[in-house]
Design a protein that fits this description.
Layout (H helix, E strand, L loop, with lengths): L1 H20 L5 H24 L15 H33 L6 H10 L1 H24 L1 H18 L3 H8 L3 H15 L8 H26 L3 H39 L8 H7 L4
């Protein structure tokens, strides 16, 4: 257990070395987050006025209505497309860096655009699975929530390496899932714990940022407007930056793990021993 934790920390550090070289990679999760909020707003407003809002964009049950299912599918499809498009761009840039290149944001966007058929196909499949899981959760109450939760976790594990597969191998959605599963079986799922270090580090860094934001609110209440606003803005910006960095680091690490597992290539900035430990079957 301690060896796994040490390995995850080391991989997090090596992923950070990549991000330090290419800080512009933070642009991709930033644009993705903004785009997802715009997607949410574009669906939330009409849903609110048409009465379909309950259960569509929250945790409530989905109305038993074909129109509701169609809207839910459309929302999932657009959302998945946005997320996978920008993750694909980030993976493409990471691979360029892994192989000794110096990627730019334009390189990532071009790579993602050239894989639009694969990304669209994956968004369709993901949206379909998402709707099915949501319907199961809505129709069977607690039992359905348990089944949907377990199925969702299995789906997330099975698709762990899908984005690198789409980018590097240009496979269709079904083939990408099969390929992701094959790599996951090869690693016995050990790659799934490799992101532990990034998650813990992000959590620890977020705590003081949250404290700073709370302090800003408290200071504002006491009437010290300038200081309160400064503390609040600093805290919120810190939380945003940590979130962006965490997302970018996770994607970089997944790309590195996939390149090693699928092609036996050790990316630059990464250590073979750390990658081997991530795939240990002990």
């Amino acid at each position: 257990m301690f060896e796994r934790i040490a390995t995850s920390w080391e991989l997090a550090r090596q992923s950070w070395q990549v991000l330090k070289l290419d800080k512009e990679l933070l642009v991709f999760p930033l644009i993705s987050g903004i785009a997802c909020m715009m997607v949410m707003a574009s669906f939330a407003v009409p849903l609110f006025f048409t009465g379909y809002g309950a259960g569509m964009l929250d945790e409530g049950p989905v109305p038993n209505d074909p129109i509701a299912y169609a809207i839910l599918f459309a929302f999932y499809f657009v959302n998945y497309f946005v997320v996978v498009f920008f993750n694909s761009a980030l993976v493409a840039c990471a691979v360029i860096r892994f192989k000794g290149g110096n990627p730019t944001v334009a390189d990532g966007l071009r790579a993602a655009t050239s894989r639009l058929p694969q990304i669209l196909g994956w968004a369709l499949l993901s949206a379909s699975v998402g709707v099915v899981l949501k319907v199961i959760e809505s129709r069977s109450e607690k039992a359905g929530q348990i089944v949907a939760g377990l199925a969702g976790m299995a789906w997330s594990a099975a698709t762990y390496f899908v984005v690198p597969v789409l980018v590097i191998e240009r496979l269709g959605p079904v083939e990408a899932v099969k390929r992701s599963l094959a790599v996951l079986r090869k690693t016995w799922g050990e790659a799934l714990v490799a992101n532990f270090g990034i998650g813990v580090l992000s959590f620890l860094l977020t705590l003081p940022a949250i404290a700073l934001a709370i302090a800003g609110v408290v200071v504002l209440i006491t009437g010290k407007t300038t200081l309160g606003i400064a503390l609040l803005v600093t805290g919120l910006l810190s939380i945003l930056l940590i979130s962006l960095a965490s997302s970018a680091l996770n994607t970089i690490l997944i790309a590195a793990l996939y390149l090693y597992a699928a092609e036996d290539q050790v990316p630059q900035q990464f250590d073979r021993q750390a990658l081997e430990n991530a795939f240990s079957h002990k």
